[in-house]
Structure formats: C-alpha cells, structure tokens
Amino acid sequence: MSTGVPLASGKSEIFEVVLQFMPDWVQIPVLVLIVLLVVGSWVFKLKRKIDRRRARRQGQTVQVVVPHGEERGADFLGPYAPQRQTAEPSGADFLGAYAPQRPGGNSPA
C-alpha cells in the first residue's frame, strides 16, 4: 500500500546511501560516533543550563566567555562599531580654536 510520497527527507536518504556504501566494519563506528556527538551536545547544553540556573539562584551574574575573534550575534557590530575615543574631543560640540576665550586665562575648565 504505497502512496507514492517518500516518507524520508532528502538528507536522511543521502545519509542512508552513504552508510550503505561503507563496509559493515565502518558503519557501526560511524553510527556510534554520531550518537556520541548528539548525546554529548545534549549533556553540554544541560550542564550550561544547570550552571545558569545555579548562578541565578545565588544572585551571581552569568559570565558568557567569548573567545577572541569569535564575536557574533546581534550585539556584535564588527567594522560598524564606534571607534575608540581619541584623547582630543571632536564632533559638532567641539569648537577647537574657535571656542570663546574665557576671561582670566587660557586654562581649560
């Protein structure tokens, strides 16, 4: 009783073809490695979730450590981030040499 519609997605069909292409002695270790990767990712996510919950209960801030060069996401501006402030002020409010002189000397406030 076939409906003519494949039940598996294209990814799973490709996965099956690759596994069938491998010899039997390679199939089992590959499947074990894939299962270990999936279970390991679940354990890692669960551990981070537990750590966050403990930190919240104890009133600590949760520090997210981002390795240098791996910033990403909505808060990462990359080359569009504002540049560091220079030692000398600039911009629309800075008058420089055109600023009115203060009576009593040239010392800045």
What fraction of the residues are assigned to beta strands by DSSP? under 5%
Distance between the termini: 89 Å
Elements, N to C (H/E): HH
Shape: elongated
Task: Give the averaged pLDDT, no decimals.
Answer: 77
For the sheet with most strands, the description reads: none
Helix content: 40-55%
Given helix and strand content, the structural type is mainly alpha
Low-confidence stretches: none
Keywords:
mainly alpha; 109 residues; 2 helices
Structure description:
It is a single chain. With 109 residues, the protein is mainly α. 42% of the residues lie in helices and 0% in strands. The chain is elongated, with a radius of gyration of 30 Å.
Provide a short characterization of the protein structure:
The protein is an all-alpha fold. The protein is built from 2 helices and no strands.
Layout of secondary structure:
Elements: H1 10-21, H2 24-57
